Amino acid sequence: MVLTANDIKELNEKIGHQGAFVDRIRDEVGRVIVGQHTMLDRLLIGLFTNGHILLEGAPGLAKTLAIKSLSQTVKAKFSRIQFTPDLLPADVIGTMIYHQQKHEFMVRKGPIFANFVLADEINRAPAKVQSALLEAMQERQVTIGENSFPLDQPFLVLATQNPLEQEGTYPLPEAQQDRFLMKVIVGYPSKEEEQLILRHNVMDLISPEIRPVASIQEVIAARELVRKVYMDEKIENYILDIVFATRTPEKYGLEKLKLLIGYGGSPRASISLALAAKAQAFLLKRGYVIPEDVRSVCKDVLRHRIGLSYEAEAENVDVEQIVDEVLKAIPVP
Fold first, then answer.
1. Of 130, 123, 119, nearest to 167 (Cα)?
2. What's the rounded Cα separation, in Å, for the pair 270 and 277?
3. Model-level pTM?
C-alpha cells in the first residue's frame, strides 16, 4: 500500500502524540542506569515488535537492572529465572501438584507467566529447559497437564548470556537463537560514565525508585502503530538484498565471503529486519522507514543468524566484519 504525503504527515503526528511515553520511559530508566542507551533502545524495539531479545555481555553491565527498570516503568509483571544446570522445565513453565485436602491435582504456574521474563544466563541450563522456554516464546502459550494457558500480553523474554565462562555451559543451538529478534552485545561504559556509576553506588545508600510512567495499554497501542509505519518497496528490496547477500554472496560481488559464510540469514532475518527498522523509525518519531533505520539495527538482527565457516575462524573473521562487507556492497536506495 502506497501512502500519500498527507497520510505520512498524519502518521508522523500520531506517532509524535502516542509515542510521547517513550521519552518518559527513557528519562525514568536513566535515573538508575548511566549510559547503555543502545541497550535500552533495543529492549524497546523488542517490546514494540513483540520480539524477544538475547543480551550478551560481561557481568555487572546493568543488564538485569535495565530489564527490571523497564518493566517497572510500564507497571508490568516481572519475573527472573536464574538458569542453572539442575533446573527442570517445570521450574520454568509450572507443573501439576496434588492438593491433599481437595484430593485433586491443581496447576501451579511457573515464573514464565509474567509480562517481562528475564532468563538469566540461559546457557547454564540443559537443552530440555531451554526448549521449554523457547516453545513458550514461540507459541505464546504453555501446556501444563491437559490444559493450555495463554501468556499475558505484552510478553517479552530477555535472555542473557555470559561470554566469559563457557566451560560446563550449554550454548544455545544456532537454530534456537534464530527465535530471538535480536542478539545485542552489551559493551563496557566509557570512563566518564563509569565515574558517574562509581559516584552513585558509593555515595547513595538507596537507589532511586522507578515510577510507572506509561501503561501496558500504551505499549499495546504502540505495537499496532509500529506495524503501520510506512516502508517503501525500495526499502523492502534493500532488506531482501542484505539477507540474500548472506546466503549467496557471489551474486552480489562478494565472492571472498562465499568461503567464510557457513549459512546465511533465514526468512526470519528478513521479517525481523523489517520489523526492527519500523520500530527504530517509531523511536525516532518518524512514520516512515529510511535506509539508516535498517543499517542501524542490521548487526543486532543478523549477528546470531549467520554461521561462520572453519575458514572464517582460521582467519579470525567475525560476523560483524561480514555484515560490514555486505552493507558496503549493497547499494543504498
1. 123
2. 11
3. 0.86
Are 286 and 230 spatial neighbours (Cβ–Cβ below 8 Å)? no
The set of residues, in sequence order, having a beta carbon less than 8 Å from that of 24 and lying 6+ positions away, is 73, 213, 214
Neighbours of 140 (CB within 10 A): 12
Length of the chain: 333
According to the model, what pLDDT value does residue 32 have? 80
C-alpha cell at 202: 558509593
Q: Distance (Å, rounded) from C-alpha 293 to C-alpha 186?
A: 20
Strand positions, DSSP E, 230-309:
261-263, 307-308
Q: How far out from the chain centre does Cα 281 lie? A: 16
The structural domains of the chain, with segments of one domain joined by +, span 32-217, 229-329
Strands 53-56 and 182-185, by their bridges, are parallel
Q: Which of 241, 260, 231 is nearest to 326 (CA)?
A: 241
The CATH class given to the 229-329 domain equals mainly alpha
Q: Which long-range contacts (CB under 8 A, 24 or more apart) does 319-326 make?
A: 322/246, 322/257, 322/260, 322/261, 323/298, 323/299, 325/254, 325/257, 326/242, 326/245, 326/246, 326/249, 326/252, 326/254, 326/257
Angle, CA 66 vertex, CA 122 and CA 55 arms, to 5°: 35
**Cα 115 vs. chain centroid, distance in angstroms?**
14
The set of cell numbers assigned to 173 is 543451538
> In this structure, what C-alpha cell is assigned to residue 296?
542501524
Nearest 10 degrees: Cα torsion 202, 206, 208, 211:
160
Asked if 235 and 292 touch (Cβ cutoff 8 Å), the reply is no
Nearest CA to 257 out of 173, 174, 315, 296 is that of 315
Interval 185-196 mean pLDDT? 78
Pick from 11-15, 54-58, 102-106, 234-238: least confident: 102-106
CATH code of the region 32-217:
3.40.50.300
